[in-house]
Design a protein that fits this description.
Elements: H1 4-13, H2 20-30, H3 40-51, H4 65-74, H5 94-101, H6 105-112, H7 117-127, E1 134-135, H8 137-147, H9 153-167, E2 174-175, H10 179-199, H11 209-218, H12 225-235, H13 245-256, H14 277-293, H15 296-307, H16 311-318, E3 325-326, H17 328-338, H18 345-355, E4 362-363, H19 367-387, H20 397-403, H21 413-423, H22 433-443
Antiparallel strand pairs: 1-2, 3-4
Helix pairs in contact: 9-10, 10-13, 14-19, 18-19, 19-22
Length: 447
């Protein structure tokens, strides 16, 4: 209910400033029964009058409504049921149930992101945060919480089980190739849960016959008592007089044609399956190629500017004080403001050092090599960062062995060990970015 003070304050929040007299007049329009409060139905009428939308009359009743109610009470079918329902579902409106389960606009947008390789890769990395190639239920739950997705725990469990036991290879871990199926299942079962939760008016996570009958009517299926009992019995597989969420999922899956795992399905092995070296290499190389491709559009634009003699325009922005030379700090500011894609400090430092002459400044004639070096060292940094799986800006031997394939180099374990020893110039057991740069140059790494 909205009183007059709430109405006036609310209109101000919406940007509608009224005099006291005007506000009282508008409030009186909405408060049709003069009770001093606006009910939701009255508010709907008020807004629809303003927007030109026609609602049903206050006293409108459904044709044959009383007869239908009497038929339901006596167990007789309504005389208005002109369309014969499908025999398999005893009068259940299958189309209405499918409509209730269909993803909404926001969910459709989220599902469309599965086709965005960059989004899906970042989502997978967030879920598989320890990089071992498989995600447990706890890790999936952590990702869902961090993403702010309002998914119920029953949804999470059902999606996890369907993904691993039905869509996947039967082990208890969601692997990268199974991850898109997990995301689809999360939204599918959340829609099923929302329907189930609406039926469960007592919020005990169980639906009895009365709740089922009332809920189906809300969805457009006005079932006779016999039909309601028959459909309820289908869902209540154990005959306990209540439908649990798992039972409701089974029931709905038959209606909408979705295949679930068997109720007694068990995982094959309680041991996490580690990805093979070949699988890791393939995934890593794909990630690196996708990351490097992000530079293509900007690099093409800069090359076009060079071809069209537009370097002066870049220099004038870079050398904003007009003294004919730029410092590292000026380059840092220019990159951060103009080209944030290239704003990786280790790469920036290497590009700066590779571009300057005998002094500590980049002169105008050194702008062209600076631009070239910015792209080269940022690409190298991208490769280095992908190999550095624990994000400590250092590469250890295991990371190096698994990462060399990402740059198209085929090495045996002994060859990788030998290459790593050559890289690790101070025998510290780790390779820093500067050491990696020198090694990449010697390998003539194609970027």
């Amino acid at each position: 209910r909205i009183n007059e003070a709430e109405f006036i304050a609310g209109m101000k929040k919406l940007g509608v400033t009224m005099s006291v007299a005007s506000a009282q007049a508008e409030f009186a329009k909405a408060d049709q029964n003069g009770g001093g409060q606006i009910l939701f139905r009255e508010f709907c009428d008020y807004l629809c009058n303003a927007a030109g939308i026609a609602l049903e009359d206050d006293g409108a009743v459904w044709d044959g409504g009383e007869e239908d109610a009497k038929s339901m009470a006596s167990g007789r079918s309504s005389s208005r049921a002109s369309l014969a329902p499908p025999k398999d579902f005893n009068g259940l409106d299958v189309a209405a149930l499918k409509s209730a389960l269909a993803p909404g606009e926001a969910e459709q947008e989220a599902l469309a992101m599965i086709n965005d390789k960059d989004f899906l890769r970042d989502l997978w990395r967030q879920c598989d945060f320890n990089g071992n190639g498989g995600c447990s239920l706890a890790e999936i739950d952590k990702m869902v919480v961090e993403r702010g997705w309002k998914l119920s725990k029953p949804t999470l469990l059902r999606a996890y089980k369907k993904t691993t036991l039905k869509d996947g290879d039967g082990d208890p871990w969601v692997e990268r190739k199974e991850f898109p199926a997990l995301i689809r299942n999360l939204f599918l079962f959340e829609n099923v849960w929302e329907v189930f939760d609406d039926l469960d008016t007592e919020d005990d996570r169980r639906v009895d016959l009365e709740e089922f009958t009332r809920g189906m009517a809300k969805l457009g299926s006005r079932l006779s008592p016999e039909d309601a009992q028959a459909e309820f019995n289908k869902a209540d597989k154990n005959g306990g007089g209540q439908i649990l969420f798992r039972e409701f999922c089974d029931y709905v899956s038959e209606v909408v044609g979705v295949s679930l795992e068997d109720s007694d399905a068990k995982w094959l092995e309680p041991v996490k399956k580690e990805p093979t070296d070949a699988e890791r290499a393939a995934d890593g190389q794909q990630d690196t190629e996708q990351d490097l491709s992000k530079f293509d559009e900007l690099e093409d634009k800069i090359k076009q500017d060079v071809a069209e003699d537009k370097l002066d325009e870049h220099w004038n922005v870079l050398d904003f004080n007009g003294n004919g030379m730029v410092s590292l700090a000026e380059i840092d500011k220019w990159v951060a403001e103009q080209y944030p894609l290239l704003d990786h400090k280790p790469a920036l430092m290497r590009a700066y050092k590779a571009s300057i002459g005998s002094d500590d400044y980049v002169q105008k004639h050194e702008l062209r090599p600076l631009l070239r070096n910015l792209f080269y060292f940022n690409k190298l940094w991208t490769v280095f960062d992908n190999i550095d799986t624990d994000d400590d800006r250092r590469i250890d031997l295991e990371e190096f062995k698994q990462g060399v394939a990402q740059v198209g180099l085929a090495m045996s374990s002994d060859e990788a060990q030998s290459a790593f020893d050559g890289l690790d110039s101070n025998d510290g057991g780790i390779v820093l970015f500067d050491e990696f740069v020198k090694w990449a140059a010697a390998q003539k790494m194609a970027l």
